[in-house]
Amino acid sequence: MNKDVIIGLFSNIKGHGPLVHHLTNNVTINDCANATLAIGGSPVMSTSIEEVADMVQLADALVINFGTIDDQMYEAMVIAGQAANTKGIPVIFDPVGVGATPFRTERASNFLNKVKVNIIRGNATEVYALIGGKAITRGVDAGELSISKEKLALEAADKLQAVTVISGETDVISNGISSVQIENGDIWLTRITGTGCMTASLIACFAGITDDWFSAAIAGMSVMSLAGENAKNSLQANDGIGTYRSKLMDEIFLMNEAVWEKGVRFK
Amino acid sequence: MNKDVIIGLFSNIKGHGPLVHHLTNNVTINDCANATLAIGGSPVMSTSIEEVADMVQLADALVINFGTIDDQMYEAMVIAGQAANTKGIPVIFDPVGVGATPFRTERASNFLNKVKVNIIRGNATEVYALIGGKAITRGVDAGELSISKEKLALEAADKLQAVTVISGETDVISNGISSVQIENGDIWLTRITGTGCMTASLIACFAGITDDWFSAAIAGMSVMSLAGENAKNSLQANDGIGTYRSKLMDEIFLMNEAVWEKGVRFK
Amino acid sequence: MNKDVIIGLFSNIKGHGPLVHHLTNNVTINDCANATLAIGGSPVMSTSIEEVADMVQLADALVINFGTIDDQMYEAMVIAGQAANTKGIPVIFDPVGVGATPFRTERASNFLNKVKVNIIRGNATEVYALIGGKAITRGVDAGELSISKEKLALEAADKLQAVTVISGETDVISNGISSVQIENGDIWLTRITGTGCMTASLIACFAGITDDWFSAAIAGMSVMSLAGENAKNSLQANDGIGTYRSKLMDEIFLMNEAVWEKGVRFK
């Protein structure tokens, strides 16, 4: 990891204004759009199979999020993903809930066969399921597994040939050769919905302005963990998760190279 | 009603972390997810007909909300509802807008024939429509009707064999034999979208950790009304419904046995 | 433009509580519902082809927003639009992203052939695409074009026989004969998602209580621009777009004839 490269991404992102096309779930879609705007990108969320390929032509990165997939959405995801591969823009895959039902696990496996994914972001059980492991997943939350997150990230990145981001108390990002661990974060990031999904959007924004996807993944993941920590520190007595949600978006918006360099903590 | 039972629910909910599967509308789905998290539950919102039955196997309670149903969603709701019945987890039904169009009224009737519903939460006109009454419903808002809410709740609970919750200025909860009325609340709860839907989620969280669905319904309904009142009291001059929304979520998050016991007012 | 007419709309809207039916995108649907409530209207968002015509019978205005259309949604939009035409309630059309893909442009053209639209609200490139112009559109954001916004609004209003609202740094509203320009606003209105969509909802609320759609359009557009400005002015150091979103909704809620008359600036 080269810190200066990441600092350069912060310097450039607002000027570039990367357009990030999302095919995502309908629970946190608004949060993803606002997180994209907050960091300096521009979100598009169309999902019609008749236009996703055309929309990808305008985009700098593509987010595929499995949160509320059905057959129609899946079909659109494959079309969009293949168009992104052809165009050469990065595909960021968020395998929400993979491992929880056979449907999700099969579709994820299918998707990885049809689309070249460049960055994967999930929790440990989701990533474990992606490489064929069987963890006890409970809905969309992380379950327990027997492999360490560090080893899992490295193995998944190597096996799937994609930069792999595992969110958690410590975040691990691996390119299959080396790994980085981020110590920032706050337990409250798990007490609101959408922080994982928004992380994928942030990573996609950075990936849309560089070919160095490892750095983009570290940048996006660390923005969420540091913003989540800063938002928590800005709370007052009697604030709860409603206020926290607003403050989190504020902190993503306020993030820049100076705030990042001062606050980020690698292990 | 036994207050100690409800206090026990507050003591247990965060430890249990009930998983609540939702098939709900796309207007307030994010609010429902966050309300579930705020009270201590874990939300899942998948709707694909290919996986809802499997997802129900992981869940402690199921919310069915008619807000933006179409044929495909309805089909998934029936599958999920029947899976919940088989598994023996409670089904909480929110008949949004029933009575407003023949489509909604017919589908609701159909649904009640196919799925055993354990708790119903609606406004007075929606519940009236469920038992065959014809009120003047205006969209998704409550219209006027000639039967008292107390009598309606009792009659509906008896007829539909489900704990029935009627939200309003005074909330009424009935199990068909006895009824409870909650005097908390604030008119501003009607000035933002989603408070009814979130109430169903809260009820489902409590219903996911007990077989005493009457107590669960009282707990969930009273959390929303008391939180709505506390949120209003916490506002400052020039705050409007944007701030109110955040504060409402804060107050749900801050709710516990002490806050509840001190603030709840039964008639 | 007659300022007294607009002041009259503010006096009447909360008493009338216009019911606004929306067929809109799933990114900002919650924001649209809350904006409708904030100004004094009542939102309905059902989209099933089996009931949209019935729901329109209950409504005072209809919003058609192309943000995340697919074939099924488009079909429902045509049914709802034609029902609104038959009933004689105003149709407000938000051509989100039109010009960005052939699919969108063709569907918009098709829609305008099948449904009589009374008010159009978009950014300059979207409106330009509606009248057959080819601008460089970039996703859902405004691109650049060679015609002035003033001339475009006038021409579009005349050609499409609909009051035309072009949102931007200066907002232009034209009825094809005369035009009005609003100088309020803030760049932060472009840094959160949904402000355009919410503007269409606000316009629809006013259009639901008068036949003077030109005044309704001016009222709705100016509420958003003035509220956006007031919200920005109410921010404190270290507030970002999370807090801004809440404050914007607060300011829409607090808007009335006095606030409007004091703050609005026409060019």
TrEMBL record, chains A, B, C:
Stretches of the chain forming a coiled coil according to its record: none
Pathway: Cofactor biosynthesis; thiamine diphosphate biosynthesis; 4-methyl-5-(2-phosphoethyl)-thiazole from 5-(2-hydroxyethyl)-4-methylthiazole: step 1/1
GO biological process: thiamine biosynthetic process; thiamine diphosphate biosynthetic process
Record EC number: 2.7.1.50
Single GO term (MF): ATP binding
Residue numbers binding substrate: M45, G194
InterPro entries: Hyethyz_kinase, Ribokinase-like
UniProt keyword list: ATP-binding, Kinase, Magnesium, Metal-binding, Nucleotide-binding, Thiamine biosynthesis, Transferase
Keyword Nucleotide-binding: yes
Keyword Ligase carried by entry: no
UniProt catalytic activity: 5-(2-hydroxyethyl)-4-methylthiazole + ATP = 4-methyl-5-(2-phosphooxyethyl)-thiazole + ADP + H(+)
Cofactor section: Mg(2+)
Binding site for ATP: R121, S167
Physiological role: Catalyzes the phosphorylation of the hydroxyl group of 4-methyl-5-beta-hydroxyethylthiazole (THZ).
HAMAP family xref list: Thz_kinase
Protein family according to the UniProt entry: Belongs to the Thz kinase family.
Official protein name in the record: Hydroxyethylthiazole kinase
Organism: Lederbergia lenta (Bacillus lentus)
